[in-house]
Design a protein that fits this description.
Elements: H1 9-16, H2 21-35, H3 39-50, H4 55-82, H5 85-105, H6 109-123, H7 126-137, H8 143-171, H9 173-194, H10 219-224, H11 226-242, H12 248-254, H13 260-286, H14 290-307, H15 314-331, H16 334-342, H17 348-376, H18 378-410
Length: about 400
């Protein structure tokens, strides 16, 4: 085989080469954090089984978490642009570690609700800072590859976390909370030590400089960008569908007679496939038209969720996961590259926060919609979720020409 084959050094260089050490520190921290991210996917099972809540009550508590996450994205975007990516990410992870420990010890309903809200505020603060940091470090042509590698790290850790989380749920949920806290803390400390601040300088024409040198502009400027607003609405819609895998699917499986271990094994198929396949395809998909690739991926994800209505065995659930995972592999790295292309350098944190706000909004709606539809029946839930993703795919095709113009402009 030549050096350009799948096993050769040319292949590895094309996927891994040319990215700065600070990016790899971020990648490593992301991987470590994701390995320990066990609580969030199993929180619905934890609330219903360990705390004895009903489906409706568990859905409401998860929605409180979603409200916190929703608010955190606006705050985190502002923090990342005002104070810097490094301190925002590290502070968010340290706060997450402390809150995970507190949630593990919370027994009363008021304590659980309050701690879940705080966890929602802290656990996703890193996202706008991480997205903006990559845009600061990586030139436009390499951004899909960089975001794809972060996506790969997330899923490499996810494959481990889901299997381990299922077993730890049986051994005792306290282990899950402790490990999650430890890996969050490790992520924050690694970034603090190994990642320099990348906040762009504000000097230049156009009146960007403010009295403190940090620049003018705020979320009002983001909201004036109609294309970014449209993309954010599409993101919210697609996230409502995608989040069912981690909110409603475990509830549907456990209430169908399966165990937390069964869910952990089935959902781990998602991470394993991404780890094995995405590095082989991500660079190629990243060089195609972003809006078309993302639309196709969302349509495939929708088909995978719709198939879930027809399954009743572990093998059937695994097959549906394989199908929607194929769509997820197609889309890897594309949303981050789109946001980076749309954002002016001095507003990258806020644009990333807007994207995160849309994502968190979808995650907030998902358990409310999903648990409500699950009470009607799986035959209603899963086709409806598939249809939602088709709507998002159609929206992407509609804004595709405008996205192509902005992406081309950002590359020059």
């Amino acid at each position: 085989m030549t050096s350009t084959t799948l096993a050769g050094p040319g292949f590895l260089r094309s996927r891994l080469g040319g990215l700065p050490p600070a990016f790899w520190a971020l990648w490593t921290g992301t991987l470590v954090n994701r390995v320990g991210m066990m609580v969030q996917p199993f929180i619905g099972v934890y609330l219903t089984q360990a705390r004895g809540m009903s489906l409706a009550a568990a859905g409401a508590v998860m929605a409180v978490f979603g409200v916190g996450s929703l608010l955190s994205q606006i705050i985190a975007g502002w923090l990342a642009d005002r104070f810097g990516r490094r301190i925002t990410l590290t502070g968010g992870m340290v706060a997450t570690a402390a809150t995970m420990v507190a949630l593990g010890y919370s027994a009363s309903l008021p304590a659980i609700v309050a701690t879940m809200f705080v966890l929602g505020m802290t656990v996703d603060i890193y996202r706008p800072a991480s997205t903006a940091l990559v845009a600061d470090l990586i030139p436009p042509l390499d951004r899909p590859r960089a975001y794809g590698l972060l996506f790969w790290a997330l899923n490499l850790g996810f494959a481990v976390a889901m299997v381990a989380g299922g077993w730890l749920a049986q051994a005792g949920y306290g282990w899950m909370f402790g490990i999650n806290a430890a890996t969050s803390l490790a992520f924050g400390l690694l970034v603090w030590r190994a990642v320099p601040e990348t906040l762009p300088a504000r000097s230049g024409p156009g009146g960007l400089d403010g009295p403190d040198g940090r620049g003018r502009g705020g979320f009002a400027d983001v909201l004036k960008d109609r294309l970014m607003v449209a993309f954010s609405v599409i993101t919210l819609i697609s996230t409502v569908a995608y989040s069912q895998a981690f909110t409603t699917l475990p509830l549907a499986m456990t209430h169908g007679g399966f165990t937390a271990v069964d869910y952990g094994m089935v959902i781990a198929v998602n991470g394993v496939l991404i780890v094995l396949v995405q590095p082989l395809t991500g660079d190629w998909f990243g060089r195609l038209d972003h809006s078309t690739v993302l639309a196709v991926g969302l349509a495939v994800i929708g088909a995978g969720f719709a198939l879930t209505a027809a399954v009743s065995s572990i093998a059937g659930y695994a097959l549906s996961v394989i199908l929607w995972t194929a769509g997820e592999i197609v889309t890897a790295g594309i949303p981050g590259a789109i946001v980076a292309a749309l954002a002016p350098p001095h507003l990258r944190g806020r644009y990333s926060g807007m994207y995160g706000f849309a994502w968190s909004g979808g995650a907030l709606i998902a358990p409310l919609l999903g648990t409500g539809l699950l009470e009607v029946g799986p035959a209603v839930l899963w086709p409806a979720i598939g249809a939602i993703n088709l709507v998002a795919a159609g929206g992407l095709l509609a804004i595709g020409p405008a996205l192509r113009r902005r992406t081309a402009a950002a590359a020059h």
